[in-house]
Hints:
Elements (H helix, E strand, L loop, with lengths): L2 H18 L16 H14 L5 E6 L32 E8 L4 E8 L6 E5 L6 H5 L6 E8 L2 E8 L7 H17 L3
Antiparallel strand pairs: 1-2, 2-3, 3-6, 4-5, 5-6
Amino acid sequence: MSKKKKVILFLLTFLILFGCSKQPSHPNEIDKSLISYEQYRSLFKNMAIELELPSSKMIEKTDDINLVAIDKEFSLGKRSVLTVDGEQSDTETQERIYYQDENHIITIIDLIYLNASLGKDMIFWPTKQTDTYREQNFLHKYDECMISYNNIIVKVTQVSPEGDLNFTNMQQTVQAVASYLQTYKP
């Protein structure tokens, strides 16, 4: 066997052994990437105070307990109130912060608490390359995206009461949110 083939065989063996050496997770092991409910509450409180969006100011945030009752079928049979345990409690799983800029564009930041981690990633920003978007001018006044921050979904929405939204403005807003999350210490 040639020296080149031996090196390749050694590398493949090493990669296979290294790749297979990870032990499977124990079913009762706690996911260390999960943010606790208390940390979620702190993130919301701190974000409402500290997050600065370009050319915008915070105008309102949800306060107190905001329970949302739903038909259980809407949650695929899981819960009837949007709380951690699905019952009427003070563990609501959604909070909202409103910002407004000088052009009256409203930016809404939603923080949605989950019991499972999705990692840290941009998970949704819809395409504008559809016939419906091109044909329906009112859609040009609305944009949204979602970022997963472990087990919290951060939904960013912009709505313009008048003219079309500026893509650069949404990019700067998303950058501000992503930068805040990257430097935030739960």
